[in-house]
Amino acid sequence: MQDSGPTPTTPTDRRRWARRHLQPGGWIAVLVPVAVTAALILWAPMPVRAVRDITFDSYQRLSPRPYDPTLPVRIVDIDDESLARLGQWPWPRARLAAIVDRLRAAGAAAVAFDILLSEPERTNGPDGDERLAEAVASAPVIMSLSLTNAPGEMPLAPKAGFATAGDDPLKFVPRFSGVIPSLPLFTEPAAGLGALNWVPDRDLVVRRVPTLMALGDALVPGLASEALRVAQGASTILVRASNASGETAFGRPTGIAAVRIGEVTIATEADGALRIHYAGTRDERRLPAWRLLDGSADTAALSGAIVLVGASAAALADVRATPLEAAVPGVDIHAEFLEHVLSDARLMRPDYAPGVEVAGLLALSALAVALALRVRPLVSAPAFLGLAAAVGAASWLAFSRAAMLIDPIWPLAGTAASFASAIAIALRRTEAERRWIRQAFARYLSPEVVAVLSREPGRLALGGETRPITVLFADIRGFTSRAEWLDARDVVAFLNTVHTPLTDEVMRHGGTIDKFLGDGLMAFWNAPLDVPDHVAKALAAALAMQAAIGRLAPALAQEGLPPLAVGIGIHTGPACVGNLGSLHRFDYSAVGDTVNAAARIEQASKIYGEPILASGAVVAAAPAFGFLLVDEVRLRGRGEATRLYTLVCGPDQRDAGFDDFRRQHDCAIEAAIGRRPSARELLDEVSRNSRGADRAPLYAFHRARLAENESVSKG
């Protein structure tokens, strides 16, 4: 068999051979998705962030933060019923003052207005504004302001002081250039000033709330942050940024690490925002404004609490989207911020998360590609799905156990793309291997065996291995004399006529054609595939081959050719099988003592006139077949004597009469082999048995040998 390049004699060689038939673009298709996905993870463009946010939102919906009603955070809610009972918005400032008075009387630690009071009251004149200003001055009230990007100046300094450690936080927080404040009449006596601003994502979902913002060169706390400061009576907010003592940044300005307000430390993301683990809208945290004002509300929970005054009424349209809900009153988000902080909840996307995701992408891709290239798709595909499930579970555990947000989607997307490319390569490589197997074995294996090997190339061990096999040699008797009176073309036609049915029977019985030897052939069983009953299959093939030769007799007679006989020799034992030859030409073949013995046994069949001879090892391995003892000889190249048997019939043709005859026959042959005095008489007796007629040449051989031995003894 010809092959270009080195012979693929092992599975590794076959893979190399297959790779030569694959385009380099296939490997690029494996690496490009990994490289592109890694870049997307590190760069994080909007589509990547959008998919990531959807994943993290789903985690929150699956496991929202448990709501704790004992947390000191409440909302005085200007709801639809309050508007129905007390009148449409805007309410008189005196009514807002009454709310402040009642909250102060209830012992609220801080009262934060999620309402921007930037214009004077129009209905009741200045008296209402002054009434509210007096109430603000008498209570720990935080007034709100709204930062804008319109040019403007801060009308007054923030109430909170700031201390910083590390890099300037102004480099990192959201920046604004203008402000819409509440009236100075309210802000001057207020205990605190806080910004109402959100920094929603592009899909307008509020996932993170800024603790601090910048107006020009001044830091401004968010409304909830300022309420937390006022409630604790703290004067200063401490901001820890990169390169502060204890913060690892290696000299690079990487962002804000934490914001400390009083006794509460808030771990933030780099821009100073807090990612909230939402509990969802809860009636338990709300107190309708009308009930507070008419005195029917239980105000015990307000003592020591941070109270947010805001609106849920549909007419006021102060709604935002969160990971849990599509429409949430803005005041609830401030409450969620405070509850998150006071409950010591944590939900962080660490700075190192992209690095973890890229490392996971590389490891997963390497594992997935190895699976695709080394394991069949029917196995590797479920294994990949299991791997993906494990990655998803790891991401979920990071969220649920450690409150860390590690994205599984993009690493899995990149891995899936590289896995799909690797599967395509594996399929092409497998087809290349199958094509090679079909080309290499179709001429001396049955189509069924070739089909098995092409489906399961891993069952081939082509580099050479020692294994038990059964070897059969067949030879056309008297071929030389036939060839003398046939021209070359007729000789070839004659050989093809004889070899075709012999080859068909070998393949039909699961054998491998090793080679054609002019007027003979060699075949073996149990390689390259395991054949548990290889001895029996070889014997059945031998009987079928003789029957096939018998069916050729009429056709040969019509052509004027003499009767045809084929001698067969069979032996079983260990042999070396594999691709034998040079780097440029090889055959799948077998070598060793077992092969040599089978060839010698076939040659001996001519001496005894028996069509099929087998060794004692064959008889021991297939006792169900009908054998008769022929002789005990020392084959050339072997030290010990070998017993030879003739194969008479298969298990189905063996009857009680045959067993009786076999005992009589073997007794006579044993006597002849041992040169016992009774040998001649026993041979005569068995010759008279009707079943012994076919063995006449064998009995004549032993009589002649006995006579020769007797003459030698007398001489």
TrEMBL record:
PROSITE patterns: GUANYLATE_CYCLASE_2. The keyword Nuclease does not apply. GO terms for molecular function: adenylate cyclase activity. Keywords: Membrane, Transmembrane, Transmembrane helix. The chain crosses the membrane at residues 24-44, 352-372, 384-403, 409-427. Residues 470-602 form the Guanylate cyclase domain. Pfam families: CHASE2, Guanylate_cyc. SUPFAM superfamilies: Nucleotide cyclase. The keyword Iron does not apply. One of its GO terms (biological process) is cyclic nucleotide biosynthetic process. It comes from the Bacteria. This is Guanylate cyclase domain-containing protein. It comes from Chelatococcus daeguensis.
